[in-house]
Amino acid sequence: MKMCMVTESFSGYHGESRHVYRLAIELGKRGHEVTVLAPKGVSYWPGVRVKSFPALESIGLVKSKIIPSYYFEVNKYEIVHSHSVGLPALFARHAKNFFVTVHGPLWYSGNTRYGLPGWIYNQLVTDSTLRAANKKGCIFCISPQDHGLCLGMGLQNSHLLPVYVEIEAIREADGESFRKKYGIHGLMVLEVARFLEFKGQLRFLRDCAEKIQEKLDVAFVFAGTKSDEKYLKALRREIVARNLKNVFLLTDLSDQDLWAAYKACDVFILPSEFEGRPHVILEAFAARKPAVVTDVGGIRESVGNLCRIVPFWQPQKFAEEIIKLLEDTKLRKRMGEKAYRFVSKFSWSKVAEFVEEKYLGALKRKEVG
User: Fold this and answer.
1) Fold type of domain 2-164+347-368
2) Under 8 Å CB-to-CB from 299, ≥6 apart: which residues?
3) Side-chain-side CA neighbours of residue 174 (13 Å)
4) Where are the beta strands (DSSP E) in 13-74?
5) Can you list the positions of beta strands (E) in 86-155?
6) 3-state class (DSSP) for residue 245
7) How far apart (Å, rounded) are the C-alpha atoms in residues 98 and 29?
8) What percent of the chain clears pLDDT 90, i.e. is strictly above it?
9) Are the beta carbons of 53 and 5 closer than 8 angstroms?
């Protein structure tokens, strides 16, 4: 089949880009012709055909005035799969076979609208996009929470995606080379996330890092996409103001360095305020690492008791859980092994098989109809 993936962002390392890339690769292996429609053509992702449409970024959409440039492009494909529920999806929903993946938490959708502007946007954009996918194809949800929201909105043609992780690549990565490259000799705590305020890096530096370093000699490594330069500057100022040592802000790591970072760390953290079903936790599991995470989005439903789960408004407890793990090598190993057993059964090939099945089901329904 000839199909396209529509995405607002396809550069740097973060969940949606990685998801789109791996799904496109796996569907290609199954004999499909896949094109990614993205704001910019990029070389970061090898082996995937990318067509650039500036209108897929918010500023580009404004400049395009009424009809964005990719509006007519999607008519060329048998399957159109949007990885946005926002404006890019709105201008692709006229496709004959239209699918949507909900990547982030639908905190403004369904019964969780906030204020009149959010309600209006939800009615005009998000709800109408989801209902179009429910009718013409289906809705894929990353988190159980969003799946429940969709079902609650009467969108019965919504499905929870299987879990996926880069198990082999992470297992074979060299953690010692990462430590050597950055001069890290003692304990190491890692977060992998975009550099955005709701990901919690600033709050962690302000409320947790100092408490942990008062007790232990530990390095903090934050790896992610440089999404907000002002926010990165705020992080650097916080590091200086609190006289924190051995804090690394690493932007746009290669895959090899990222996998090595997982292997190198002693504890993985995710102090986010909002999440869907973050696959970075599973990647840490693939490296046999214990995790301390916030109780947001679909995290609890996804990983259950495999992590130390703390409400994001309790930074003192968050810091305490990290300290407990850093001080107890045996506990770290037990948690890491249990997490690895949980994640070792997941693969991208199963995700592609599931998605392909839904594509074919939609086409069959149209033929019967």
Assistant:
1) Rossmann fold (3.40.50)
2) 270, 275, 277, 278, 281, 293, 307, 309
3) 5
4) 33-38, 49-52
5) 98-102, 138-141
6) coil
7) 22
8) 64
9) no
Vertex 54 angle, CA 28 and 94, to 5°? 65
C-alpha distances in Å from residue 177, one per residue of 112, 186, 259: 46, 14, 11
Backbone angles phi, psi at 111, to 5 degrees: -95, 20
Closest CA to 75 of 37, 111, 103: 37
pLDDT at residue 57 in the model = 76
Enumerate long-range contacts of 317-323, CB under 8 Å, 24 or more apart.
318/204, 318/207, 318/208, 318/269, 318/271, 318/292, 318/294, 319/207, 319/208, 319/211, 319/212, 321/292, 322/189, 322/208, 322/212, 322/267, 322/269, 322/292, 323/211, 323/212, 323/215, 323/216
Give the span between the Cα atoms of 196 and 344, in whole angstroms.
Answer: 30
Task: Flag whether the pTM goes above 0.90.
Answer: no
What is the rounded distance in angstroms from the CA atom of residue 28 to the CA atom of residue 20?
A: 12
All structural domains of the chain with their residue ranges: 2-164+347-368, 167-343
Considering only CA atoms, which of 137, 143, 64 is closest in space to residue 107?
143
pLDDT tens digits, one per residue of 79-103 = 999 998 988 899 999 999 999 999 8
Please give the distance of CA 71 from its chain centroid, rounded to a whole number: 26
Around Cβ 310, how many Cβ atoms within 10 Å?
21
Distance CA 128, CA 114 (A): 18
Question: And the tokens for 31?
Answer: 């004999």
Q: Is the CB of residue 191 less than 8 Å from the CB of residue 221?
A: yes
CATH of region 167-343: 3.40.50.2000
- C-alpha 296/C-alpha 302 separation (Å) is 11
The β-bridge relationship of strands 98-102 and 33-38 is unpaired
Nearest Cα residue to 322 out of 289, 296, 299:
289
What CA–CA distance (Å, rounded) separates 297 from 151? 16
For 248-272, letters b (16+ CB in 10 Å) and e give: bbbbebeeebbbbbbbbbbbbbbbb
How far apart are alpha carbons 367 and 87 in whole angstroms? 30
